[in-house]
Amino acid sequence: MKHLPKHLRPRWRYLLVGIEAWPNADVSRRDFQRSVWFAAQNLLGDAASADADLRVLSYEFDAGEGEAVVRARRGYVSEARAALACVDAVRDDPVGVRVRGVSGTVRAGEERYLGRARENSAEEAVVFRNATAQAVSRDGLVDVTVDGGFVGATRADLE
Amino acid sequence: MYEAVTATPDGESTVRRFAATAARQGFDGVVVRNTEEADPAFDATAVREAHDVDVVDATEVVADDPTGASGPLSEARRAHTVLCVRGGTPKLNRFAAEEERVDVLTKPMAGRGDVNHVIARAAADHDVRVEFDLGDVLRASGGPRVQALRGLRKLRELVEQYDVPYVVSGSPRSHLQMRAPRELRALGEAIGFDAAAIEAGLAEWGVLAERNRRRRSADFIAPGLERGRHDTER
Prior knowledge:
The structure holds two protein chains of two kinds. By secondary structure, chain A is an alpha+beta fold. Chain A has two domains: 10-113, Ribonuclease P, Pop5 subunit (Alpha-Beta Plaits), CATH 3.30.70.3250; 122-157, no CATH class. In chain A, 26% of the residues lie in helices and 42% in strands. Chain A has helices at residues 29-52, 77-85, 106-113; strands at 12-21, 55-62, 65-73, 89-90, 93-103, 122-128, 131-138, 141-146, 149-154. In chain A, strands 2-3-1-5-4 form a five-stranded antiparallel sheet. A four-stranded antiparallel sheet of chain A has the order 6-7-8-9, with no helix packed on it. The mean pLDDT of chain A is 92. Chain B has one domain: Alpha-Beta Barrel (TIM Barrel), CATH 3.20.20.140. Chain B is 45% helix and 17% strand. Chain B contains ten helices and nine strands. In chain B, α5 links the parallel β4 (82-86) and β5. The longest helix of chain B has 22 residues, at 195-216. The model of chain B has no long low-confidence stretch (mean pLDDT 93). The chains are: A alpha+beta, B alpha/beta.
């Protein structure tokens, strides 16, 4: 279909989003997009979520940390922010979502808010609460394996 | 703005991890409100220096009925800066709202909990803050979420009517569940709050901590009666 003349095209705002999860989480782009849609629909309802028209444009996720660009219609940024706040898990992996910034173009937003991945994560054995445990550390933040789950800690919590 | 968190062993992140996340998200501090049985035992000064956010030592008294809650109250009041009592039944809510020593009545609408004009007025009279808990709005879905929203709305109407002091929190149990102040504000607006009300509720934790720290300091004798600059140590 021929695309619309410029003055009729919708105006967009781009939300630059940081994603965090436990190190064993596997959050695919498709699942993240589904979670965003569901969150928006559950919070805002069909009508408003269709208006906000949230779409994940670019997505990167690796070893418990990721970034995404989410598009929203101009004037619906606040709704989009609220919906993204309600994304608490993707499938069964709990995720932390944070809007790092909002931009009028993808490029400016990416330059300004994304690409700040912390240094590479490393697996190591640590002593936590008087017991040895496997852990994944990154930038002073350590996710320790405890009883099959994880505990979020920092370097200073270890012994 | 402050967030009230539950750290390990009840939650899934340590106090330091919460502090690190809070600093990144733009909070001024975290209020650690574990129950007495799951005390995380942390060094507030060290955490404050390492992460450049305030850490408030709080506790939450959780009991089935007023009798069970009143027992540990004085000890909890002595030991912690901020004292919260978990509501959740009309009786508990009323007990907490009428107790001067209590700072915050948490989760008043959870479970079978309900708040009416009597409780709201009592909370305002006794300077007990009621908590708007956004946790279920953030993380539940379907029926439980609808109930949480209904509870928040009722509570909001009573708070406005009787000018009850209040706090707001997303009550995270891990650093992944923390949401930045702007996100909470946007969520609040989406469910009918004023953006300013959410901000005030998040900031109220800090006001509360500040007030209690002053009261617990050695210079404080009684409201309006303090050791001043003209007194010397004897």
